[in-house]
Amino acid sequence: MNREQVSRLLQQHGAVMVLGLLVVVGSLAFDSFATTANAASVVVSSSFLAIIAVGMTFVIISGGIDLSVGSLFVLGGVLAAYGSQYGLLVALLLPLAVCGVVGLLQGLVIARTGMAPFIVTLAGLLGVRGLMLAISDEGATTYLVEDRAFATLGQGEILGLSYPVYLTAALALLAMVLLQRTGFGQNVYAIGGNEQAAALMGVPVVRTKVYVYVMSGLLAGLAGALNAARLSSGVTILGIGLELDAIAAVVIGGTLLTGGAGGITGSVAGVLLLGVIQSLINQVGNLTSAFQQVVSGLFLALVVVAQRLLSKAQRLT
After folding, report:
1. How far apart are alpha carbons 21 and 19 in whole angstroms?
2. What does the alpha-carbon distance between residue 52 and residue 271 come to, in Å, rounded to a whole number?
3. Rounded to an integer, what distance in angstroms lies between the CA atom of residue 151 and that of residue 79?
4. CB 91 within 8 A of CB 221
5. Cβ 99 vs Cβ 75: under 8 Å
């Protein structure tokens, strides 16, 4: 195995390796870490962020960014809880429809006008947050989940793991196939690698960009709806900074912020890595949750530096 192959392997699967190392260290250091209950807790709590990270992976590989997913997550939860009074289908379809339309509008603006995704989705973040506050009377009204079937979707369990975990796994597998085995996935990579060259090759740049932002919006809304089902209410104070967690997980998982490289496996590993770090901090006992943000930030900085060094190593070989 030459230097270039080693660099590519570390870039694509480094998060999985670090995740395995942390699990081993945590298991040896803390008796309560390597338990079924703790593992289930990490997986369940990470499943909602993982759904958002799947959509974010497509966006970042295409060379974009989506800062609106945290607000869409909260809006999806509020709309799902509100719609649950009309039954399971409305509770699911209402947040998907609204969040999908937001993603569509953002995608159209970005793809057709050439505006920076950062600016467009930042506007989306603020606008969606304002819409959520308007629906919930400035956060004073918390809608409760009234449909039992919808609540079961978030609270039911199989083999000790809640339904959202299995749904997340299914979505991740589907996204892997879509990204690696379809023409759409290859178009996403091509646009992120070199948009001008992709356009000259006949890649439908505008359509592909719109699709990835619609997908990101739909998945953020779905994650919010499932979280509302789990909590039995549309909590309005959640989702602040969630977009940064999703971006961090995707980048830690090996997806380049410049676009053109990355994968679903790494993003899911990045999400689990953040969850394991939080669990290890909880095991220590005398550290606050704020320390997890410090560790995650430092880890993200190291990953970005490592990615840059590995990219230089690949260009030199």
Report:
1. 5
2. 10
3. 14
4. no
5. yes
Helices (H), 136-263: 148-155, 163-181, 183-193, 195-200, 205-231, 242-252
pLDDT digits (tens, 9 = 90+) for 295-316: 767 767 776 777 666 666 555 5
Residue type, 51: I
146-157 confidence digits (pLDDT tens): 889 999 988 888
CB 254 within 8 A of CB 15: yes
What count of other Cβ atoms lies within 10 Å of the Cβ of residue 26? Answer: 18
Whole-model pTM?
A: 0.90
DSSP 255-274: --TTSS---HHHHHHHHHHH
Q: Which pairs from 87-91 meet CB under 8 Å and 24+ separation?
A: 87/147, 87/149, 87/150, 88/147, 88/149, 88/150, 88/153, 91/145, 91/147, 91/150, 91/225, 91/229
